[in-house]
Amino acid sequence: MPGNILRKGTLLILSGPANHLHVVMNDPVYSHEHGYEGVLAVNISSVKHGVYHDPSCILTAACHPFVRWDSWVVYKEAAVFDASRLDLKVDAGEIVTHVPVSDDVYQSVRAGFDISRHLPKKITRFIRQNGF
Questions:
Q1: Number of separate domains in the chain
Q2: What are the Cα distances from residue 65, in Å, to 10, 44, 86, 130?
Q3: Is position 39 within any domain?
């Protein structure tokens, strides 16, 4: 069973060539489609002028201590992650958690799932099946 590191609203910093911010949208729940306790997480990316971005949810700079520039939520890359594997990666230092986003920011990100035209069908099913 996953630890309590991953909770609704937690900001994850997934490392790689560049650090990517993700908002966890739910406490871990069992997903029959995925076969594990999962959390839905969605990437936040900086708005680059002149480059297309999904307008469903724009976060303003400083809405969270880690959001330094106006950013957009990349709904087309939303994914359900295995919470146990994420916990292991946090323990190994491969993923860093940050303080949860505010309720207002969370609600804005959540509302974007209802209006984005770029949301994968698998994510729509996960949201519907888990009632959030």
A1: 1
A2: 13, 14, 22, 30
A3: yes
Cβ neighbourhood burial of 23 (10 Å; 0-12, 13-18, 19+): buried
More confident position, 19 or 106: 106
SS3 call for 7: coil
Specify if 6 maps to a domain: no
Predicted local confidence at residue 16, as pLDDT: 62
Domain membership of residue 1 (yes or no) is no
Whether the CB-CB separation of 13 and 28 falls below 8 Å is answered with: no
User: Residue 75 is inside which H or E element, if any?
Assistant: strand 71-82
Has residue 51 got a pLDDT over 60?
yes
pTM of the model: 0.88
Domain residues for the domain of 26 are 11-130
User: In which band, very low, low, confident or very high, does the pLDDT at 15 lie, cut at 50, 70 and 90?
Assistant: low
Residue 58, phi then psi, degrees to nearest 5 = -110, 125
Within-domain flag for 3: no
CATH code of residue 58: 2.30.30
